[in-house]
Amino acid sequence: MKSPKLSLALAGLGIVGKKHATNILKQSRVIDFVACFAPTPAEFQWAVANLTSHGVFIYSQYEEMVAHPGLDAVLISTAAVVHEVEVVQALDQNLHVLCEKPLSTNLEAAAREKPNLKVMCGFSRRFDESYRHAKQITTTGLIGDPSFIRCQSCDRYDAGGFLVQYSELSGGIFIDLGIHDIDLTLWFLGEDLVLKSVTATGAATLHPQLLSTNDRDNAMGLVEFHGGKVAQYYVSRIMAHGQEDSADIIGTEGKVTVNSQPARNLVNLYHAGGVTREVPQDFWARYEHSFSEELREFADCCLLDTTLPMNLAVAVKSVEIAAALQESLITGRQIRFNEQGQRLLMATL
Amino acid sequence: MKSPKLSLALAGLGIVGKKHATNILKQSRVIDFVACFAPTPAEFQWAVANLTSHGVFIYSQYEEMVAHPGLDAVLISTAAVVHEVEVVQALDQNLHVLCEKPLSTNLEAAAREKPNLKVMCGFSRRFDESYRHAKQITTTGLIGDPSFIRCQSCDRYDAGGFLVQYSELSGGIFIDLGIHDIDLTLWFLGEDLVLKSVTATGAATLHPQLLSTNDRDNAMGLVEFHGGKVAQYYVSRIMAHGQEDSADIIGTEGKVTVNSQPARNLVNLYHAGGVTREVPQDFWARYEHSFSEELREFADCCLLDTTLPMNLAVAVKSVEIAAALQESLITGRQIRFNEQGQRLLMATL
Amino acid sequence: MKSPKLSLALAGLGIVGKKHATNILKQSRVIDFVACFAPTPAEFQWAVANLTSHGVFIYSQYEEMVAHPGLDAVLISTAAVVHEVEVVQALDQNLHVLCEKPLSTNLEAAAREKPNLKVMCGFSRRFDESYRHAKQITTTGLIGDPSFIRCQSCDRYDAGGFLVQYSELSGGIFIDLGIHDIDLTLWFLGEDLVLKSVTATGAATLHPQLLSTNDRDNAMGLVEFHGGKVAQYYVSRIMAHGQEDSADIIGTEGKVTVNSQPARNLVNLYHAGGVTREVPQDFWARYEHSFSEELREFADCCLLDTTLPMNLAVAVKSVEIAAALQESLITGRQIRFNEQGQRLLMATL
Amino acid sequence: MKSPKLSLALAGLGIVGKKHATNILKQSRVIDFVACFAPTPAEFQWAVANLTSHGVFIYSQYEEMVAHPGLDAVLISTAAVVHEVEVVQALDQNLHVLCEKPLSTNLEAAAREKPNLKVMCGFSRRFDESYRHAKQITTTGLIGDPSFIRCQSCDRYDAGGFLVQYSELSGGIFIDLGIHDIDLTLWFLGEDLVLKSVTATGAATLHPQLLSTNDRDNAMGLVEFHGGKVAQYYVSRIMAHGQEDSADIIGTEGKVTVNSQPARNLVNLYHAGGVTREVPQDFWARYEHSFSEELREFADCCLLDTTLPMNLAVAVKSVEIAAALQESLITGRQIRFNEQGQRLLMATL
User: Could you tell me one molecular function GO term of this UniProt entry (chains A, B, C, D) (predicted)?
Assistant: First the structure.
């Protein structure tokens, strides 16, 4: 007897979506890849060329895809601005949902109405073996009480200008990149923390056009929680050397770091100029296995009806903090909150 | 239309065999895992518990397994001493063969009689992304002429005594571990090199019982080729910290190293005693993806009838050098060869 | 003919002062160590035991020491609160001055009145070979325009409580530790930068008594300059593993880091728990050679009447920024400045 | 009262000698640099320009220098071939001797006749903080019984050809470079070890002229001791990236390494090609502090009549092993010894 499989559809075939498509096909032992939604002609063409032969039905309308007969779940990898409506439509069709970040606040309520459905936000670092090892070290108490975190999420400079076009749909650098660091903060320092203040600043160093969409290509943020825990972020899209995410989690008795020495693999070249190692060039080179693990665990939770490895409320809280950081980045002003988490108003005299 | 798949059987379900079984199941898009050979009752039981549900037919006789109807290929992962006879039987049944190292000299002749069949020896490092990157750097000429190599293949100390029992079947530490380093040597310094001298020495440091099977748990070897290229090996089974393979390939204009800083993942723990990172504990933690890639490429070559990524003659040459090193290790004497590769006799006066 | 020497006196024999004393003795080729000022009985006793035999005259009054006949220069290593008055008294005696950070604003005016005297603030990192190498890389243009900096200055946790006593005299964690990072910021990003905003937050994690002196043992700061350059700081006194300063300088075309992998020396221990290296335990283990170089270059500038390697105005600017960070740390509020550098008033509505 | 100083003369002002001269001047608190021996006109000129002003008397005859009135000790840094006669002449003048490696066997006897004199061979690594830390770890038992050692002593490629001229005077690559690794072997594995076999091979890869002086620019050696301890060496003069010495000391319960990640300092440059660090370019960049410490400790031992930190017999034993390796390198043959350390004769049949 073979195990039952999860009948899955994929929405969105952009850079990340194409990677998901490949990953889903590799998980054919537990997942039946039955349908996809290709919003643009280019994505449709790619799907015809790459997915049809695997029996995947291609839709140009999201609503039609979620009504595909026998569908169990949908993986949403479209632009951030349509996540909310697409998740709601999927829930209406009684589908489990794995949605790329970010998620909006309203979704939590919508998901609560269908407690039998699994709704998970794709925070891939939660499925990365290194972050998980760091989490395990932290949970074991080896660094005492985790109190401070310093993270960076830095992308390689893309001369092609894709970033600028994409900026309007992404919600901004803290929503798009920084949200991973915020999620790490809640994961490592505490999911119940109450925000005290948020301050951010940055610059449109190599992409001045971003100013017109209220975005930046470099930003630094400082987030303080009531009780004294603090997080510090650096997000960038102008790295010459490649993709580099890292995190230092500092506790009262020690520190654990992830990726303090970025490396593509185990190779070093010794030459007249010194010793050189390469660095991953994009998120996929760094997180391919995390994406794969995320998908596998999501499928298992749906098939076995077990608890998801992460909480939807936390994903929503991350979006809220990211939005506050993005606002502070644009206004240049600190935003403060009282102990009930209510925003305090400030003014220049 | 779905692509055709390779119908594969697996022989041997020991430590490595079990890993292969898992890997084969993951490659279900290109491989049909149809049969396995479980030589021992324990292996048979494991197969019943883990493979039956995936439709794998279990045999307790190798001859019967290779006669399984519709079989295309066999992956041999049994004890080294039976590799030769099992490869020959598989070839007699017109099966492609992927055989764990080591291979014997006779096999090359046997394989040459069936030029339509693919016969490959499982040197997993040839499929590891880091060694491949190093090879690409070398091929590009970035280190000039690759002239010297220093390798180590070191396993974690196993208090359980498995090693001692296994020693009689493995052929000795140079045949079992060192052969990977020898293969790297030929791959990086040249597959046509002619052996000039071989010297080895070592000790049964933590496993004195190995002396009775003419084996050691630590050994160092020095291999010289006509023309001046030299290789230096260290193989060990007593590492406290884990599994650690590394290679330095030294050329006339630079050096490339693989794994000079072993690490389990990207985590570092900072504590009162300093900064600590973990190390892979066994070959699987280090080479899981290489094994997977090896299997995938072998399947592709069989299905598409393309050239295998490595040459059987080189695999056989590796065994010859390993055997000479093992002999030198036991006798304590250097072994020398003339420019035709013929062995020179030496004596103590 | 032997070269002339600088006749030097040392004020203060605390932890840092004792190290300076040792360093001065080692520079006997260019410096005559003629006098010292020992403010406390314990320091006086130490001087008797360690300096008398080298011909150093010991004073218990600073005013008397600066009047020591034939004195050329004084190195001030007393508590931060008395730096200002002591520098002024030294200038009144026509002495060159090397003063430990921090320096106050008034000093710049006082020093300007004696243009023939050398007045330098001891920012030891400016004399460290690694920071200098990073500076040279930056100046050469290898990272493009240096735009962002992320620094940390973290001390080992001191269970002895010295920190708490010292806090009242030090001016606070940003004045005492963070000032080095601020100096790096000005050195690498530009000494003419105009401050736009300063935000800090932190906690008294392991030393709650620090709250009573308006200090903290961990703090994070965010400093923004008009024009878009930004700095991010982390200062701490609770590190379990030792002393760890580091800096990432990020430019438009690359990044240079200093000390991303702290290590006491070149040793790694491989053991059952992994691979461990030690870390410097205090500032001296990390900066001994910088202190020595600083002293040597200061002496050379005095003897040869050459330009000092760093500008007093920058040292003063660092103190101003540090004071703003310390204020923000205590009030929890962002402080903002207009393009003329004038402070803007803010209020909670 | 000032402490007495050691009145020291320096013989030889080549590359290493000039460095010693600088070091001696820096130790002016304990050493009076009174005389030097400049064998060549160029060295004489350098001494006039650099040492006369410090009161150093310059000799063109070694015999005259060792008769300098009031002299206590001599530091010999001339060519290896004259070490023996110069040490004997110094002992005849009742001088303490610090002599650069290598030392010859006869010296041990000569030194034994003057037990009141200090005679030390300059193995600088014994004074390096990292090797000392590794030694302390080993002595503490943290790696169990130190049983195997893998070392390399690799110099940067020198296009200038100095190496070739120098080769005739140096005694060959194992005498000149490898001797440091041999000394480490005896220091870490045991000074009483009895040699069992020696095997070496190599090539004159970039300096084919070295063949005419029975030398090579790359060599690998394998040294076995009775009882099962083994050492493996790699020495080279063709490194593109700089100077790189390293050692792995492997024990029954762990491993300690020195310099597995060579670095000039704490700087890393992140650029479009990856992450690059520089490497020390020569022995001085790596060992300046070791040389300084060696000189200081030698002076202290002479002044206080305390035991030297290393044994002359061990230095002599290192030369014997180095000579055997050099012979094996040239003949291509293994050399074997019985348990009394007597050489066994071998022949090709």
Answer: oxidoreductase activity
